[in-house]
């Protein structure tokens, strides 16, 4: 039976950063952008291909200090593979030129500098007609332990930095999406994410980026046991109870959600390379995967009545910290694309 639907939206993207995130001296070598783009562009299921790629604005992929000529070359490269650019990851962390959003003035200035550079790239790619949708992705760029020393004060400092980042984004006609993960201070639980977004109070500019693998861990209370929704000894065969808890997370954050990563999780955490421990992404067909991807993606794409919210134009697969052996195999991308098509068939629109 064919899985291909007639739906046009959401567009289907693949993330480029799995070639970089979790790689490094104590892990595996990075995978270059050309290889990631080629693997994305050649994936095909029943004549359907990926529509685009979401980009990581850091070397050795896309230089945050790219010149206009560099960006023109990037746009030509994407167009040559029939791919659009979508969301862009701003390298806001200390090791990539940024700094903590709740740090001292020099750290906050570095954070905002990287946001400005990312927004400038976003605008240029729009001018080059290779990017018609997508956000600039940020996080608090600080660990939970440091944040926990003074939660109220530190959350306010993060919110102040995010508000200033919003002003920058507005100057460039961009929107920002803050991605909550268990490793980011002030963004490490579903409740803390909602509080932070409300405190910033700029819904027209700052929204939430939901990653299915990361947000599932919110139900388990990693780094925030006070916000857990599933018992510590949860029986994973109770899929209806997982779905109920997951819908509660999505219901709290869906009004803010403007970017979505489709992903699978086996209920464990993983750190690799320079990346702190966070949700372990799994292949869509992993027998240990806890999510029912098509069902649970609907909690983010649709409202409580099953109607698409149309709050974002594309969805992106995130294979963050997949091993290189898996990433470099062509079959995995066809399986991922098949999963993405199934999500669009179930929850898409025209």
Keywords for this entry:
single chain, 350 residues, TIM Barrel, two-stranded antiparallel sheet, 11 helices
Would you write up a description of this structure?
By secondary structure, the chain is α/β, with parallel strands linked by helices. The chain has eleven helices and ten strands. Strands 1-2-3-4-5-6-7-10 form an eight-stranded parallel β-barrel, surrounded by eight helices. It has a two-stranded antiparallel ribbon with strand order 8-9. Helix 3 (105-127) packs parallel to helix 5 (151-171). The protein is globular.
Mean pLDDT across the residues is: 95
Distance between the termini: 22 Å
- CATH domain class: Alpha Beta
Percentage beta strand: 15-25%
Quick summary:
The protein is α/β, with parallel strands linked by helices. Helices cover 39% and strands 16% of the residues.
Architecture blueprint of SSEs:
Elements: E1 11-15, H1 33-42, E2 52-56, H2 68-80, E3 84-89, H3 105-127, E4 136-138, H4 144-147, H5 151-171, E5 176-179, H6 190-200, E6 206-211, H7 212-218, H8 239-253, E7 257-262, E8 264-272, E9 275-282, H9 293-301, E10 314-317, H10 324-327, H11 330-347
Parallel strand pairs: 1-2, 1-10, 2-3, 3-4, 4-5, 5-6, 6-7, 7-10
Antiparallel strand pairs: 8-9
Helix pairs in contact: 3-5, 5-6, 6-8, 8-9, 9-11
């Amino acid at each position: 039976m064919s899985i291909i639907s007639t739906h046009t939206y959401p567009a289907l993207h693949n993330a480029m950063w799995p070639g970089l995130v979790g790689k490094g001296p104590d892990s595996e070598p990075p995978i270059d952008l050309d290889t990631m783009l080629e693997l994305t562009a050649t994936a095909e299921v029943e004549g359907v291909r990926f529509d685009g790629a979401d980009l990581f604005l850091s070397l050795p992929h896309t230089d945050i200090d790219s010149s206009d000529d560099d960006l023109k070359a990037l746009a030509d490269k994407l167009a040559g593979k029939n791919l659009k650019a979508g969301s862009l990851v701003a390298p806001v962390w200390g090791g990539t030129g940024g700094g903590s959003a709740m740090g001292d003035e020099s750290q906050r200035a570095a954070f905002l500098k990287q946001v400005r550079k990312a927004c400038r790239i976003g605008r240029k790619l729009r001018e080059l007609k290779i990017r018609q949708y997508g956000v600039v992705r940020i996080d608090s760029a600080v660990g939970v332990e440091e944040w926990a020393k003074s939660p109220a004060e530190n959350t306010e400092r993060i919110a102040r930095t995010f508000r200033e980042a919003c002003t920058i984004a507005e100057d460039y006609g961009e929107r920002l999406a803050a991605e909550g993960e268990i490793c980011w201070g002030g963004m490490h639980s579903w409740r803390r994410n909602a509080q932070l977004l409300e405190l910033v109070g700029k819904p027209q500019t700052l929204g939430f980026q939901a990653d299915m693998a990361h947000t599932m861990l919110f139900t388990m209370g990693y780094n925030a046991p006070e916000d857990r929704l599933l018992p510590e000894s949860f029986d994973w065969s109770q899929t209806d109870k997982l779905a109920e808890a997951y819908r509660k997370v999505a219901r709290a954050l869906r009004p803010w959600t403007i970017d979505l990563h489709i992903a699978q999780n086996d209920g464990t955490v993983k750190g690799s390379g320079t990346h702190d421990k966070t949700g372990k992404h799994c292949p869509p067909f992993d027998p240990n995967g806890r999510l029912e991807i098509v069902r649970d993606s609907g909690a983010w794409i649709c409202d409580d009545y099953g109607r698409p919210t149309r709050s974002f134009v594309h969805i992106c697969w995130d294979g963050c910290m997949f091993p290189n052996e898996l990433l470099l195999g062509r079959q995995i991308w066809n399986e991922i694309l098949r999963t993405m098509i199934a999500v669009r068939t179930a929850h898409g629109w025209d």
